[in-house]
Every structure is written in C-alpha cells, then in structure tokens.
Amino acid sequence: MGSQQDGEPTMHYQSSQSGVSSHKIVDGKESTSVSGVTRVTTRSKEAGVMIGGVSVHPDEAQAFIDEIEGEQAQDEPQTESFDLGTTQVLDDMDKGNLANAVNLAIDGKLDDEAMAKAVSSLGFTDEESAKEVARNLTSALSEKFSVIAEEEGFDLQTAWDAMIAWNKVEAKSAVHDWMNTRGQDSGRLREALREAWNNYGKADNTELIQVLEEDGYDVRRTAGGGIVLKGNEFSDWTTWREVRETFKKV
C-alpha cells in the first residue's frame, strides 16, 4: 500500500454501508446479515475501487454507486411491509404463539407474561430479555398500525378500540391477515377500520358527541341511530360517513 518513507502516498480508505443490516443475539449466538451497496473512497488516484465485485476508477465511483442505487430504487416496489428486524422476529416465532398473541391483544389480555411466552420460541432463557424483545416488537407493530389508522382518520388507540367494538371476530381476522403478510397487504385491516369508523359515529357514543360539541359542531341524531354534523367546515348537515372524508389522509 505504500508508505511515507518511500515517497508513495499512504492510501486512505473510508467505507460505509447503504441498505439494510440486521443483528440478533439469542442465547449468546450472534448472526448478522447485510444487504445493499458498499461505498469505498480512496485518496490514491491509481487505486481501483471495488463495488459489488466490479473495479471502478475512484473518479467514477460515486457516479457508479448513484446509478446502481437509482436502478435499485426503480426495481423495488413501494410497500407498507414491516421493517427487516420486525419481519425477522415474526418469522422466527412459533406460529401458534404468534396467533395466540394476536387473539389475546384483541381480547385485551396481552400482558407482559403473555408477551414473553409469545416470543419464547426465539430461545430466550432470561424472562426479562424475552419481555424486552416482546415490547420492542409490540412497539414496532403499533407504529405501523398507527400510520394506517391515521390515514383512515383515527388516532391509534381510538382506531383499535373502535375496530374491536365494531366486530371483534372480523378485527381478529383483519389483524391476522395483516400480520401474516408482514404488512404488505393492509386491505382487510383498512376495510375493518372504515367499517369501525361508520359504527363509531353513533348517537349513543356519548364520548364522541361530547368531543364534537366541544370542538364547535352541532350534532343531531338520525332516525337510524347515527349522527349528522353541522358547523366549522360543514355549512350543511353532513353524515358521519361523509365526515370521514375530511379526516382521512388517503
């Protein structure tokens, strides 16, 4: 590589990774996987830069990387899929434990102990470590669910409560479908949230009525037990189903 003593410049490399990397430790066993493009730069004009097994002149390296990453971006479809770490944990979990955890969540019975049991198939012998992994998994899934809920006009907690109140059986099926496709197909979940929204706007939902009136809306009961609103952005009486169009983000 040369040295300062023989007058040749010292080669200096700097590398970084673009793409996705994952690292997990289970009972002391480590595994790491990386995908993406490795960037390498050098101060020596003569040194070739290896990128994906191809030697590229340093002056052309960045352009080569940009071209590769541009092609990758075009080839990769935009999806709602879970991140690599979440998917990896779900894939490694016992399928029966995962399904039971979803059912317990819908029933409001997924406590720390149940969460730790759900990830027991990952090989953790330390209960606290199992609980920590389970909490991280729940947090990651909640973030994904929150995005979908907000796009459909809900905040996270209201969406979850409204969906369960609407139809617990269909809510379980919708969440199972969403989880089984690792987030790539949210169609049934979104449809459940839309039905839950319509069901949420009922005249007997006193909490909702109170919030709407505090926000300056006039609220009336319909003959079918639903509600219509007037005020603020609604100059005429508007059905609750139509109100959703104002709140949703898709």
Structure notes:
The chain starts with 12 loop residues before the first strand and ends with a helix. It is flat and about 75 Å long. It has helices at residues 58-75, 84-92, 95-106, 112-118, 127-151, 156-166, 168-180, 187-200, 206-214, 240-247; strands at 13-26, 29-42, 49-51, 54-56, 218-221, 227-231, 234-239. It is an alpha+beta fold and 250 residues long. The longest helix has 25 residues, at 127-151.
What is the structure about, briefly put?
The chain is built from ten helices and seven strands. By secondary structure, the chain is an alpha+beta fold.
Strand and helix map with partners:
Elements: E1 13-26, E2 29-42, E3 49-51, E4 54-56, H1 58-75, H2 84-92, H3 95-106, H4 112-118, H5 127-151, H6 156-166, H7 168-180, H8 187-200, H9 206-214, E5 218-221, E6 227-231, E7 234-239, H10 240-247
Antiparallel strand pairs: 1-2, 3-4, 5-6, 6-7
Helix pairs in contact: 3-4, 3-7, 4-5, 5-6, 6-7, 6-8, 7-8
Q: Which key features would you list for this structure?
A:
single chain, 250 residues, 3 domains, two-stranded antiparallel ribbon, 50% helix, disordered N terminus
Give the SSE order as H and E letters.
EEEEHHHHHHHHHEEEH
Total beta strand runs: 7
* Outline type: flat
- Given as residue ranges, the uncertain stretches (5+ residues, pLDDT < 50) are 1-43
Q: Report the major sheet.
A: 3 strands, antiparallel
Strand fraction band? 15-25%
Task: Determine the mean pLDDT.
Answer: 78
- Widest sheet: strand order? 5-6-7
Rg measurement, Å: 26 Å
The structure class reads alpha+beta
